[in-house]
Specification:
33% of the residues lie in helices and 22% in strands. By secondary structure, it is an alpha+beta fold. It folds into two domains: 212 residues, Ribosomal Protein S5, domain 2; 151 residues, 2-Layer Sandwich (Alpha-Beta Plaits).
Length: 381
Amino acid sequence: MLTASDFVPAKYDLQTVDTGCVAWKCPSNIALVKYWGKRDPQLPENPSLSFTLDACATATKLSFSKRACPSESVSFKIFFEGLEQASFRPKIAHFFKRISAYAPYLNHFDLRIDSRNSFPHSSGIASSASGLGALALCVMSLERLLGEELMAEDYFYQKASFLARLGSGSACRSIRGSVVVWGADPQIAGSSDLFGSPFPHRLHDCFKHFHDTILLVDKGQKQVSSTVGHQLMHGHPFASARFSQARAHLTALSQALKTGDLKAFIQLVESEALSLHAMMMTSDPSFILMKANTLQIIHKIRAFREATGTHVCFTLDAGANVHVLFPAAEKEIVTPFITNELIAHCQQNHYICDRLGMGAVPLSDTQMLAAGIGQGEDPAD
């Protein structure tokens, strides 16, 4: 079993490269079994399971230029959609500080980070998972260039997930697809608190082409940050029961994913979504994150499912937006329902059509240009 010390590089050769760039496209993900509550350093109190998305993704390029002398902290500039973003610096600086023991070579370079989302930044979809996942993969590509060309593929992705986790817990589930488990669980082979692991069982055919339509009920800033929300689980009167519930749900959901039990899938996924919000409503201080339109959508989904016998269901993150999940085989009947009945409850009728994806991919120069992140920028500019 890997430990954190296994991700400290044993060697790297700073003479290998002077300048260059690497780039990755990393998707977001939606947790089906939620993790809510963590301990230092960014370790989950309960295991979680997520669907990797496809359309909602971040493309990031990391340009690097060797310094004459190493800096005390990582020297970087951050650009989002072509504009330098000073407001992003604290989070990225904190990420680099957290990974410093595992990527000490970064202090020997001036870095420039260029990122662009495939979805609007103000859409209410959290971009930390895709953004920090992409950046962690870029860091690992640089490590590979520094004399580690023969690095095992599994180790590359495990360490990328490990690094991403130190920036954002959910980011560790975005590195690989299509179904990812994060958190050690005796029923899930290869699972770990340190990084996300691909679901080790064969996924039933009915889940291989699942759709996720994201209804943007509220595109504003989060009422409560994820960091604060997780902290509210410390001393929460129902924390222990919630962590036990999540573990039981993970076992049951794993079985449903293997056997194709859509009814069990619906019951578990919706229960997890509502349990997450119940924890927030019963914390101190308490937060009610759902909006009136969130509840309207939930009621309509359940009524439609009852009337049609379809397998459409919902899940929620820590906010008001609704993820509408359904198998591809039912797209012809569910899509008109969404457009005719649910979109009216979205802010400015905005929604995003997504589906199950396969994880992050490296970007070539041509793909970088197509993603709108250019090539050839000088990190010192």
